[in-house]
Amino acid sequence: MPLHARPRNGNSAMRVCIHRGTKEIGGTCVEIESKSTRIVLDVGLPLDVTTPDEIPLHPILGFETPDASLLGVVISHPHQDHYGLAYRLPHQTLFLIGKAAQSILAAADLFTAGGTTFENVLYLEDQKPITLGSFTIVPFLVDHSAYDAYAVLVEADGKRLFYSGDLRAHGRKGALFEKLVRQPPDRVDVLLMEGTTIGRDDQVFPTEAALEQRFVELFQQTTGMPLVWCSGQNIDRLVTVMRACIKTRRQFIIDMYTAHLLRATGNERLPHAGWDHIKVFLPSAQRRQIIGRGEFDLANSYRPWRIFPEQLAQAAATSVMLFRPSMMKDIEGASCLVGSRLIYSLWSGYLKDAKTKTFLEWLHRHGIPLNECHTSGHAAVQALVTLRNAFPNAPVVPIHTVNAARFEELFGNTQRRNDGEWWTV
Predict the structure, then answer these.
(1) DSSP secondary structure letters along 28-86
(2) Which end of the chain has the smaller Cβ count within 10 Å, N or C?
(3) Is residue 7 part of a domain?
């Protein structure tokens, strides 16, 4: 079959193909066809891929070269397993993404290989319909560990598909989940639902409020400077840490990359440089990136709130520092590790990765204890059951899961699909 061959849609009916995601978490990509035109939901990088340039693009017309029948690509949220191959698409491609999400990815592009920019954009806004050809796309802002994340309702040919994207119910925006299940879109014909946490033993996920209290306890138990290793793009977690800092009367030291991401959200209610008790540290790796890009104005814009290596030792007992292993030499050279503690706020599985061994040895060498303080960015099974029950008449199609076999048992009326399989709604 030719590279881009797909079943011909001879009648007026919405057709769907999950190109990736029916049997794995990450790499999500869904193509929807109506009247010989198409949209795509997410174009993610698989979690096990380390060289994005080498992975073949999905056999979708408009991915290798422009094609007028591809009307747009929806990016549900700014996590690489949902947008990570977008940079490989033609620059003319129309992307639909949240405004803050786009700004976050553009800001990240300065500091990391995982950032990206889009030239042709329509912004997703909560429950504001967008029409592309015969498609009507309605985004629903959701609670997730990524900022500005959306579930998506797609309507065409009299049929309606609801794509959950990635979501949860226990974050700082949990009210969005409650609103969705209380007032779901009606007449949905199929529910394309994530199942990331299915199969995990621990299904009691603490809320961000519970984490906040745990951070408070750990900060109070630390005589020196707590080092918090979390994602700079997990805005909920940054808010949680900031609130714990306020409660324990410590200043929060963030790196310039994170400060730039927070500024990019455009949300003045979020912690940012300029708030009392927030300082900005420039690690050497980020300094090299700024010099290499010639972004001196960016660095200068944070100067009023900078804290420098020679100031860290004196500030340690009254500070909390956002940290990642690339900063080990910076912190070690600042002689600020007496009485410190590492608080790990990421998925615990990363600690077992061979790449983390050097970091764990560094902690041991300096006598720094490690405490985990984290919660999932995805819905627990019970929340997924609640979401599924909000669409009682729609069959559920598993996606973003390694346990699709359990969907029928948990949710009933399940239609399992295979990667690359076309089907009619």
Answers:
(1) -EEEEEETTEEEEEEEPPBTT-S-GGGSPPPS-TTTSS--TTEEEEE--SS-HHHHTTG
(2) N
(3) no
Mean confidence (pLDDT) of the chain:
94
E strand or H helix at 131: strand 130-132
State yes or no: pLDDT of 84 exceeds 80.
yes
- Tokens 């500005």 map to which residue? 148
Residues 6 or more apart whose CB falls under 8 angstroms from that of 407 comprise: 195, 198, 396, 398, 401, 414, 416
As given in the structure block, the two tokens for residue 420 are: 């690359």
* DSSP symbol at 307: -
Cα distance between residue 383 and residue 387, in whole Å: 6
CB 36 within 8 A of CB 169: no
Identify the CA nearest to 409 among candidates 195, 202, 165: 195
Q: pTM of the full predicted structure?
A: 0.94
CA distance 321 to 195: 34
Segment 140-164, tens digit of pLDDT: 999 999 999 999 999 999 999 999 9
Any idea what DSSP says for residue 5? -
Domain count across the chain: 2
Look up the CATH number of the domain holding residue 89. 3.60.15.10
Compute the CA torsion angle 64, 65, 70, 74 (nearest 10 deg).
50
Q: Is residue 75 part of a domain?
A: yes
Instruction: State the average pLDDT over residues 392-400.
Output: 97
Q: Tell me the C-alpha distance between 257 and 263, whole Å.
A: 10
